[in-house]
Structure of Alcohol dehydrogenase-like C-terminal domain-containing protein:
Amino acid sequence: MNLHRFFWRELTLVGARLYDRSDFERAVTLVADGTIPAERLISKVVPLTQAPAAFEALEGGGDVMKILVDCTDDAQGVAV
């Protein structure tokens, strides 16, 4: 997404989601107490440089649940 157009034309970007704060709090609790094994939901961890290929993998379907994009400078990418 070219954000320059938003700034140049003074456009407003509005996001929406289907969940509220209490839903996220409940999800965090379920992950923290081990009810939901979060590590099993992440299929792969990739560095930011591999994000485009990761999105292609998600769009292609198959055996991919979630791909975590690591934006730190030293990210190497890890198969989970």
Q: What stands out?
A: The CA atoms of residues 50 and 69 lie 8 Å apart. The chain has one domain: 3-79.
